[in-house]
Specification:
about 550 residues; alpha/beta; 14 helices; 8-stranded parallel β-barrel; elongated; 7-stranded mixed sheet
Length: about 550
């Protein structure tokens, strides 16, 4: 505001004008700084012996008050924020990132967030004004964290490194969205322990750089699991020492895989490798045609190996042992879906050789499904000594046979369209643990074959929860603890339908919506339009 002094002012009137100007300047300047005292604008009550006006009475300096803070703007949204009054925190050259005592394992997280915020990383020193302090400690749930903003500082603490990392993602996104982190305390944790993305690198080659970009994106969204389906009919996409003859011309070298794994570890993403068998092995069969399954009529279904042939098991086990050493993560996916022999109306009549082998191995009542279940169990036995948690697709589990799938196998439920489809509750009621890859909402199938449509982030955000495992109907809430999470899946059935860049753009909002629903499956408070705008603002 501008003031125009139209003529000379003297005595109390001049003093009053000075006070008014000083007060306006202090308040409109947006800070509590200003003179320690100011003259009183009131009239003089008596004159001094010299005739000068009496000394003015001091008045307090105006202090700034802050509105109650709001929760930070992030994707996924934080689950709890305790509001407070204060200026919040924003990056400044005088601040830096420091590591608390006994928290040296957080150096990578500290250097990353310091670089992202454009402030220095100072290491293991005491926190000062304007600093961000990272600390390990507490007894919260795995991957939980507390982020407190008070006194011009930020402190992020958690019981494990992953939780502290997610706290830094909240800080990064809030600063990106609004320029600051609001005053108060965030207490946050995921609803589900497995949250991620599945990529079919077998049908379509994706470069190491493309995969690394997805890992960075996943880390910022607090997603922690990347499935790599790297073997199928169309290709085998990772370098092999035990069977180089099966590897496709376009593939990842082991050096590139190790680079991917190093970045994944830094961003707290576990890579879940999958060699799908006994179906989807066309790339292996191309180099070893003697392993091909044949029906009674001589038909050779694509990708299906003859599980009655011991040579089929040997080559798959060679590959399992080799790659189990390459991938240090806690999970392994055995596949087991869509074995063509079990998609026939009468498997025993169509594949009599398999029926004969089943009876010879498991008794006169055994059927082809028992031979397939035995195959799955045998492959699990190869990987189990590594200590990895084992997974298989839901259509690799069968009922009513003489052989049952191993009890420690997690069910990765993707469809209810297969022959003899079993609803999710049939697995859950047996006590099975399950991961949700519902093909109704979470399948991004290139070219949209077989009535698939590219899923939208809006539909996931507004309609889907982890309880919606098959179709659009949720399973009973009593099974919630058995549903360990969900992954969004990219399948490259018509590989040339989209470029890698188009795939990345197409999955960006669906992946953001998934991240919200596996972090907090309750109905979001923000509309889709607000969520979408925020997701665009905080990305990268």
């Amino acid at each position: 505001m501008r003031y125009s002094i139209r003529g000379p002012r003297r005595g109390p009137a001049l003093l009053a004008t000075s006070v008014a100007l000083a007060t306006v300047a202090a308040c409109s300047g947006g800070s509590a700084s200003g003179p320690a005292s100011a003259p009183s604008p009131g009239p003089a009550t008596s004159a001094s012996p010299t005739g000068a006006p009496p000394s003015p009475s001091p008045t307090p300096t105006p202090t700034r008050t802050y509105p109650l803070s709001s929760a930070p703007l992030t994707v996924p949204a934080v689950r709890a924020h305790e509001a407070a009054r204060g200026p919040g925190w924003k990056p400044a050259p005088t601040g830096g990132v420091v590591i608390a005592a006994n928290s040296g394992g957080l150096a990578d997280e500290g250097k990353l967030i310091a670089g992202e915020l454009g402030i220095p990383y100072r290491g293991a020193v005491a926190a000062g004004p304007g600093d961000v302090e990272l600390a390990l400690g507490g007894t919260g749930a795995p991957e939980s964290y507390t982020l407190a903003v008070q006194g011009g500082r930020v402190r992020i603490s958690g019981p494990d490194e992953a939780g502290v990392f997610y706290g830094t993602r909240t800080l990064k996104q809030s600063v990106k969205a609004t320029g600051a982190m609001p005053e108060g305390t965030v207490n946050d944790r995921p609803a589900k322990p497995q949250r991620g993305l599945n990529v079919d690198t077998a049908r379509k080659h994706f470069t190491a750089a493309w995969i690394e970009d997805r890992i960075r994106e996943m880390g910022d969204l607090k997603l922690n699991q990347l499935g790599l389906h790297f073997s199928d009919d169309q290709g085998f996409r990772i370098e092999s020492d035990s069977h180089p003859e099966v590897v496709s011309a376009q593939h990842l070298t082991k050096a590139e895989v190790r680079r991917i794994l190093a970045l994944a570890a830094e961003r707290h993403v576990t890579v879940v490798p999958e060699i799908d068998s006994p179906g989807h092995l066309g790339a292996v069969i191309a180099a070893h045609p003697d392993l091909q399954l044949r029906s009674a009529s001589g038909r050779a279904p694509r990708g299906a190996v003859d599980i009655a042939n011991p040579a089929s098991a040997k080559i798959v086990d060679d590959l399992l042992r080799e790659y189990a050493q390459l991938f240090p993560g806690a999970y392994w996916h055995l596949g087991a879906d869509e074995y063509v022999a079990l998609m026939a109306k009468n498997p025993e009549a169509t594949y009599p050789k398999l029926a004969q082998a089943a009876k010879a191995k498991y008794g006169p009542s055994a059927r082809v499904q028992d031979l397939a279940t035995g195959w799955l169990n045998d492959r699990a036995a190869v990987v189990r000594p590594t200590g990895k948690t084992l997974k298989a697709w839901n259509d690799g589990f069968f009922t009513g046979g003489v052989v049952n799938a191993a009890e420690d196998l997690e069910v990765e439920y993707w469809t209810g369209k297969e022959i003899g489809a079993r609803p999710p509750v049939s697995y859950l009621s047996q006590g099975r643990k399950m991961v949700n890859l519902n093909d109704e909402y979470l399948y991004y199938v290139l070219g949209e074959p077989n009535d698939f449509a590219y899923p939208t982030g809006r539909r996931i955000y507004e309609q889907w929860t982890p309880l919606v495992v098959r179709g659009t109907t949720p399973v009973p809430a009593k099974y919630d603890a058995q549903i360990l999470g969900a992954r969004f899946a990219v399948w490259c059935d018509l590989a040339n339908s989209q470029t890698p860049a188009q795939v990345a753009a197409g999955i960006r909002l669906p992946l953001a919506a998934l991240s919200q629903k596996v972090w907090n499956p309750t109905k979001p408070t923000a509309s889709w339009e607000r969520f979408r705008a925020l997701a665009e603002r905080v990305r990268g």
